Amino acid sequence: MTKRSGRYSEQSPAVAASGRAPLPLVTQPIIPIENPGETRVDGPIARMDPALTVPSIPAQRPEAVLFGKANVIATAVAPMPSHSPRPQPSGPPPEIGLTQHQLPPDEPPDSRLVLVREPDSERAAAFRVLRHHLLELGRPQVVVVSSPKAGVGKTTIALNLALARAECGRSKVLLAETHVRRPQLANVFRCVPPWCFAEQLAAHRHQPMLPWSLVDIPSAWLHVAPINPRIEKTQLLDAPAFSIAMERLRTAGYDHIVIDAPPVLGSADVNLMADAADAVLFAVRARQSTTRDLRKAIDQIGPNKVVGTVLVE
């Protein structure tokens, strides 16, 4: 195995010079990690511990297992847990008000919009592979994308998963943001939300039949619910409000709802979201994320909703 020099969190010179989000393609068979006592997620290392075993052992669920090889992005996915069907929400579908927004034609798209900037690249194809993996899991309608800690590329995963699912209008997709303390979507799409999604959650808790106000990105076949970055950063996620929102938006005709959530550790926000979602997908970064943090995050959420882990190189 060839090791790179530098700190764990540093990008390679080629990636840094390109200014792109560091997300290469799965081009080789996925292999289970082997344990040499390492705790860093770094290439073909090892299983985490006996509690997080590889999928070849049928007695254990594989959702917490990382797979990877140097310079690839890979997913470890598990079958959707068996449980009683989610009750169908009652009442008429919610009214959706759309504000159309075009990406600025005179500026290059944000580097995290891989499927917009480089639709024919290997990196874009990696997200189509991820889309395919999730479809094989039973088409979860509401997917929460999170990570143990910040700074691993979670928003990039959420953005491009939503874009891949909506690509060419194949599905009706909503990308919603719930990271109140560090909102990113308004900056990524260079828009000002007509009504901040966090404020809408609070308003719909008391008046569930209010219309929703979303941003329509026609060039990406995507609806977006951003948080206004100018709101008070101390505002907390309201669990009942989020649950009400997901119950209503499930009936709005969306095939897929992708939630760009905050990191798990240090907050109970993702626990509250997981209760109203169908699946939780974790992002971890090679040479930066640790198996200890991932194990803590899975323990905090509980294994039933965690369906996979994306290793970001």
Could you walk me through the main structural features you see in this protein, from its secondary elements to its overall organization?
The chain contains nine helices and nine strands. The protein has a nine-stranded mixed sheet with strand order 1-9-8-3-7-4-6-5-2, with helices on both faces. With 313 residues, it is α/β, with parallel strands linked by helices. α6 (197-206) crosses α7 (239-249) and α7 runs parallel beside α8 (269-276). It is globular. The chain has a domain at 96-308: P-loop containing nucleotide triphosphate hydrolases (Rossmann fold, 3-Layer(aba) Sandwich), CATH 3.40.50.300. 27% of the residues lie in helices and 15% in strands.
How are the secondary structure elements laid out?
Layout (H helix, E strand, L loop, with lengths): L12 H6 L55 E4 L18 E5 L13 H4 L4 H15 L5 E5 L7 H13 L6 E5 L7 H5 L7 H10 L5 E6 L4 E4 L13 H11 L6 E5 L8 H8 L2 E7 L5 H11 L4 E7 L1
Parallel strand pairs: 2-5, 3-7, 3-8, 4-6, 4-7, 8-9
Antiparallel strand pairs: 1-9, 5-6
Which class of one domain in CATH terms?
Alpha Beta
Number of strands: 9
CATH fold annotation of one domain:
Rossmann fold
Gap from first CA to last CA: 15 Å
Strand percentage, roughly?
A: 15-25%
Radius of gyration: 19 Å
The CATH architecture of one domain can be named as 3-Layer(aba) Sandwich
- Return the average pLDDT rounded to an integer: 77
Helix content: 25-40%
Structural class: alpha/beta
